[in-house]
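Review this today:
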Amino acid sequence: MRKFLLLAVVLFGAVSAFAGPVEFTFLGFTDGNWQLGYPYYITGGPATSITAVMCDDYVHGGAVGDTWLANITDLGSNNLTLTRFGDVQTALGLAMYREAGWILLETETTPMGQWMDMNEAVWHIFDSASPIDSGGQAWITAALHEAQLGYPGVDFNKVYIVTPVDQFNPDPNSIQEFMYIGNDPSSSSAGSATTPEPATFILLGTGALAVLRRKFLS
C-alpha cells in the first residue's frame, strides 16, 4: 500500500528569485519509479521549498541527490531563450511548450490515475521517439484541439520551466528539464503554488537509483 504525504509547496517568495539561476536538488519520484511520471520532486530556491514537477525531457536523466543550477522561465512570457526545446524554431517551440503546459495544468482537475498518461504525452510532444500508448495519445489530441481553439481561459503564466544552465548538454546522464505549476509572479499571491494530490514521496537516501537514459530502459 502506498504511503501518502501531503506536501505543502511554497515557491520562491519574491519576483527577484526569477532574475537569475537558482540551485536545485533532485529528491525523488512517485513510488521511486521514474516511469510513473508526474510528479517528481525537487527542492531549491530562496525558501528551499519542495516542488512537485513534471519532466518534459525524455532523453536526459540525472540522479536522485543531484544538485544543479537552473534558469526558470515563465511560459506566459513567450520568451523561451533559456529553455531546452525553445530553439527548435520559435513558433514550433512555443507551440510545443503550450501543449505541454496545458496538459500540466489539467492535472489540477484530473484524477491522479491519469497523470502517467499525461506525462507520457508531454514526453512525446518533445521527443516523438518516446513510447506512448492510447491514453497518452488521447491527451496529445486534446491538447491540439485546445490549441486550435486558442487555449480559451488558460493562464500560461502559471506554468514555469526549470532548465539547467547548460541547457544543451548532450550527456544523457545530465539533469533533465522540468515544468511546474505556480502563480503569476506579478500577482499579490506570488510564490504560492498548487499543492499536488497526496502522492508517495521517496526521500533522498532511501535507495532511489540514478535515472538512466530512457531508451536503454525501454
